[in-house]
Amino acid sequence: MNSPLVPPLMIDRNADLATWCAHWLTLPYVAVDTEFVRTETFYPIAGLIQIGDGQRAYLIDPLEITDWAPLVELLQAPSVVKVLHACSEDLEVFARLCGAYPLPLFDTQLAAAFLGMDFSMGYSRLVSALLNIDLPKEETRSDWLQRPLSAAQIEYAARDAQHLAELYQLLAPRIVEAGVEAWLFADTAEQVAASGQLTDPELAYQQIKQAWRLNPAQLAILQRVAFWRETQARARDQARNRLLRERAMAPLAQQQPDSLQALARIEDMHPRTVRQDGETLLQLIREGSNASPQDYPERLPEPLPAAANRLIKALRKVGQEQAERLGIAPEIVLRKKVIEALLRTGFPTGPYQLPDELTGWRRELMGEALLAIANAEVEEPV
């Protein structure tokens, strides 16, 4: 079924945006969504900003608006809750578009998980489950930079904003009743803070898959190549993998090709990369191979061995028991990266310490229990 759609209002003039933002500032919440294009660029290109106030949808045209100050004030207004769904990419859109982030932020995907629904529920599935509405999927990958937008695009975008507001009206009181509102807002504030932290190009090599397999001499090459890739992706506004595929980077540091022909033979090396930047990559390889050993990066930690599985399961059980007691999806109570970080403080011999990754309500809820389990395993080895 589909609920009737009030015709959306298009906002494509600065004065109109300022007028409506002044109105939205008087509301307790607004639903916020974005449509964007990011096929080959590093940064997302905003195609549409949708606002829903529970009555109708408003479609803001970022190709026409030039003064974003009123929207920045709305996004940052502490009295207006901003409602988004699975908002990581939306945060990037706003950072690029107007240099601001929405706070306080109510993420409906996270709210569903806090209420014991499936972890990481897609928007369409959540709308179907809670509103009994089946959303069309045809427009999810359409061109949001085309003008004029099609009638189907406009309806799709408007329904997103309208239903997002309806989801909030259902979920918000349940979150309060469950006693987890403060936890939800703490998590989204943490996500916003993390979103504002760009990768340090000097450390970009640490995020490359398989980098842990490389020795320090090879890491010296990878560090230079990853620094170049990160900085050039931003400068050229090109997707990282369009510039240089990640899967080619560790083999490149291991094999250290010394000619364009050898470079082209690296697995997953795109011919375009060799053609456009091959000489630069060869120079970076030479610089890395000539680095002084005292300047080599340290080896990266290996993945935890199979011997750690017993302790991982024991720690995961702590999170599962808390999740079951609270009626929360277990994946958000205790995340895999937190368990791994805890193990890395002492594996295999201990003693263990709580890692920095375990923060806030999670640390208070189960920090002591996790430490007790970990250090008990040390005292009673297998």
Helices, strands, pairings?
Blueprint lengths: L8 E3 L2 H11 L4 E9 L7 E8 L4 E4 L8 H8 L4 E4 L3 H11 L6 E3 H7 L8 H9 L19 H28 L2 H15 L20 H21 L3 H4 L5 H7 L4 H5 L6 H19 L19 H18 L3 H4 L2 H9 L15 H20 L3
Parallel strand pairs: 1-4, 2-5, 5-6
Antiparallel strand pairs: 2-3, 3-4
Describe the structure.
With 382 residues, the protein is an alpha/beta fold. 51% of the residues lie in helices and 8% in strands. The chain has 16 helices and six strands. The chain has a six-stranded mixed β-sheet with strand order 1-4-3-2-5-6, with helices on both faces. The protein starts with 8 loop residues before the first strand and ends with a helix.
List keywords for this structure.
382 residues, alpha/beta, six-stranded mixed sheet, 16 helices
- Total beta strands: 6
Radius of gyration: 24 Å
Q: What kind of sheet is the major sheet?
A: 6 strands, mixed
Form type: flat
Structural class, by secondary structure, is alpha/beta
The average pLDDT is 95
Uncertain runs are none
Helix and strand pattern: EHEEEHEHEHHHHHHHHHHHHH
Q: Which strands sit side by side, in order, in the main sheet?
A: 1-4-3-2-5-6
